[in-house]
Amino acid sequence: MTIIDRYREWYEQEIDANDKMLTMIESVPMDRRDDPKFQRAVVLAAHLAACRDNWLDRMTNESKSQTEWWPEDAKLEELRPRYAKSEKAWTEYLAKLSEEEMLRNFEFNTTEGPRYRWNVEGQIIQLVGHAFYHRGQIAMIVDDLGGKAVDTDYLFWAYPRNPEWGLVSDK
Prior knowledge:
Helices cover 61% and strands 6% of the residues. It has helices at residues 3-26, 36-60, 76-96, 99-103, 120-144, 154-158, and strands at residues 105-109, 115-119.
C-alpha cells in the first residue's frame, strides 16, 4: 500500500468516526442540551468541519472560500449536511492525489495576517491528528451530559476489515 493509499484509508476511517461523533452529539438527552457544554460539543464538531473546508480551500483555491474557524453559533441540525459536503470534496481530492501534489508547497495567510508556507502532505497529517484530538473532547462532553460516547479509534474500524487481525486467544 502506498502512502497516498494510506491517507485515503485514514480518511475513510475519519468519515466513519465523524458519523459516530455526530451520533454521539445527537444522543445527548434533550433536557441536557441547554447546558453550555452541549453547545461547546456542537462548536467543536463545526470547527472540525471548518478546518477540513478551510485547509482544502487553502491548498486548492488560494483561500478564496474561507469559512469561520470557530462558529460559536453552530447548530446541530446543520452539521450532517456540512460534513456530507466536506467529505465529498475531500474524497474527490484524495482520489486524485498524486505524489507530486502531496509534496507541493502552498502559501496562505492566517486570520491574524502573517503569510505561511506549508506542504500538502504535512497538512494532511495535521488534519488526521487534529480530528482525533477534538473528537476525544466531544466524547468526554457527551459522556458528561449523559449521552452515549462511542469509541472512534482507528483500531476498532480497522479490525473488521482485516481477517488476520483480532482476537487470537481468550486465554
